[in-house]
Amino acid sequence: MTVQQHPSALPSPLPVEPGLLSRALEVAGRLANDAAEVITATAGRGQQPGATHKANPFDWVTDTDRTLERHTRRVLASEFPGIPVVGEEFGSPTDAADAPYRWVVDPVDGTANYVAGFPWCAYSLALVDGSGPVVGVIADPSRAQIYAAARGRGVRANGVAVTVTPRSPTGGLVCAELSLERAPAFARHAAAGHVGVRVLGSSALAITQVALGHAVAAVLDGYREWDVAGAACLAAEAGALVVDGEGRPNPLPTGAMVVAVPGSLDEVLGWWHADR
């Protein structure tokens, strides 16, 4: 088996002051713990208080989404004044794109799962700079896990270091969060390669499964930055490869992204591009 190495096309990431890394990681971890407690206490309680729809009846937003994002914004404004916060529920300040750093939060990624009581939703928070995610923290309440990473410092799951193991995709699982137009062909080609496809309903947790070594790859389209920034940091720090839909290295792609363990990327990209 030929094992791929990390792509070298990207420039070296911007340096980050160590004190900022440590403090951002600590505060993000504290917020993730707060969120996990709230989500655990309220998930699946029938019709959620304040639950409404966005674009369609399956596109939920609840009081928990709003409350957690407000809490996140209050804490970050106090701890990191001057760093803008971009969030799913309350949007982005006009200067966020030009700021040296920005926080990106999705208070409940997988809200439909949360409303239904399906144990697959997450809180996602990331600090991002011009080189991509700097810090990423994901709370996985149903599994009582907090996953945390910082640039150059690796990944920890409840304090235990994790890294990916290079392998072929054969016999493994791929997490796919894809449009109806792309999903059938991708699943067909993956099945021909003896790989199972799982649709989980949370982009953050789909990518996180690659960082944890549970899945050989994650393939996504139609997401927003807050869905993937925290998990992309986990994946990169665990040693996974993060590329855009064309296979170009990118720490935080837009439009489409493939995250894979070394040794699996080429085949997964082949399934992604087949029948296009």
Give me the secondary-structure topology.
Blueprint: H1 18-42, E1 52-53, E2 60-61, H2 63-79, E3 85-87, E4 102-109, H3 111-116, E5 122-129, E6 132-140, E7 145-150, E8 154-157, E9 160-162, E10 173-177, H4 183-192, E11 196-198, H5 203-211, E12 217-221, H6 225-238, E13 241-244, E14 256-260, H7 265-273
InterPro entries: Inositol_monophosphatase-like, Inositol_monophosphatase_CS
Keywords: Magnesium, Metal-binding
Pfam families: Inositol_P
Can you characterise this structure?
It comes from Pseudonocardia xinjiangensis. InterPro entries: Inositol_monophosphatase-like (IPR000760), Inositol_monophosphatase_CS (IPR020550). Its EC number is 3.1.3.25. It catalyses: a myo-inositol phosphate + H2O = myo-inositol + phosphate. Keywords: Magnesium, Metal-binding. It contains seven helices and 14 strands. The relative contact order is 0.15. The chain is globular, with a radius of gyration of 18 Å. The longest helix is centred in the N-terminal third of the chain and has 25 residues, at 18-42. 33% of the residues lie in helices and 24% in strands. The strands form three sheets. Strands 3-4-5-6-7-8-9 form a seven-stranded mixed β-sheet, sandwiched between helices. Strands 11-10-12-14-13 form a five-stranded mixed β-sheet, sandwiched between helices. The protein has two domains: 18-162, 2-Layer Sandwich (Fructose-1,6-Bisphosphatase, Chain A, domain 1), CATH 3.30.540; 173-273, D-Maltodextrin-Binding Protein, domain 2. The chain has helices at 18-42, 63-79, 111-116, 183-192, 203-211, 225-238, 265-273; strands at 52-53, 60-61, 85-87, 102-109, 122-129, 132-140, 145-150, 154-157, 160-162, 173-177, 196-198, 217-221, 241-244, 256-260. The chain is of the alpha+beta class and 276 residues long.
